[in-house]
Design a protein that fits this description.
By secondary structure, this protein is an alpha+beta fold. It has two domains: about 1-40; about 55-144, no CATH class. The chain has two helices and five strands; from the N terminus they run αβββαββ. The protein has helices at about 1-35, 100-115; strands at about 55-65, 70, 90-95, 120-130, 140-144. Strands 1, 2, 3, 4 and 5 form a five-stranded antiparallel sheet that branches. A hairpin with an 8-residue loop joins strand 4 and strand 5.
Amino acid sequence: MAKTSSSKRELLILIFIAVWIFVQMAIPFIRKFELSPFKYRYATYSWAMFSKPALRYEVSFFRKKPGGEKEAIPDMNKFDFRYRSPESTSRNEYYQSTAEIKNRFRQLIQYIAQHEDPNFKYGVLLRWTQQFDPNEPKEWEYHV
């Protein structure tokens, strides 16, 4: 009787060890390759080689005269203090996808256009400085 219980215990210990090793290998793999049902929205600081790489880009805001000449948006700081106009600002994003970044800038430029001179067209230009998606164009421009 004692012999069978110890062999069951050894089997349970081996199963636990096998499951533990599988979990320790599967979680970093899922985080690195972003399998769709397991997307995460945080950056890990341990296991750096398995964490999601940052999105690196430059963004510039501008307005266009009716003739098409680009110029600075006056008082850009009152809309968002992190960005300059028309110079580009380098950014690193750890928590967002390219679609979320585009949507954020689309909303910001629409808000600026609502509160500034209606005689101008307002725009934002994104340049990806580190490309992760080969299907993504290197530049993205949006006008209101």
